[in-house]
Give the backbone structure.
Amino acid sequence: MVFIQAVTKVRGRTLFRLFSFFLLITVFYVGISTPLFPALVIRDTQSNQVVWSANIQDEAAFGIRWTHSIHRSTIEEQYRIVDGQIILSEMSFHDYGIGMENELAPGEKLVLADGRFHIRNMQRSFPALRLFIGQVRANHTLLFAGQDIPLSLIDNPEEAITIQVEKRSILSELGCNQYKYITLNNFIQK
């Protein structure tokens, strides 16, 4: 009888330890996989793969610079991030013509400064930006945190990308560098 009680006691402790271990692993996994940190994310639109990401704070700013295909002049758009939305706040360009803004929204101002047109006080909100990376002369460039990052380094020219704000988890950031992501899906597909 004592032997049976001892075996039952040992078995109970073992089950309790196993349960505790699995509970700890589950809590740890949930903790590192829960999206908590806001990030500016660029995804390849076709595959939906994250190709670039950077952690941000609210009211972060970034820009996109590109060369107009007809005018062959530089256009720069400045964006702010507010409550997970991307807000176009200013646009500047050299030549006013085909494909350029021709109407101002209420409160916007067109200013000529430094030999460039500037549309200021813009408040145009987007949940995401979708664009094709130019192949020939567009030279799309992300302006972020004082760096000029050619989008052709992030994804291939002629590819469609989506720029958006997402909450990212610790797990989603592990094993990734700033420009190209290696994910579990890459290994599964090969």
Observations:
- Residues 66 and 139 are 5 Å apart (CA to CA).
- Residues 175-190 have pLDDT under 50 and may be disordered.
- Residues 2-33 form the longest helix (32 residues).
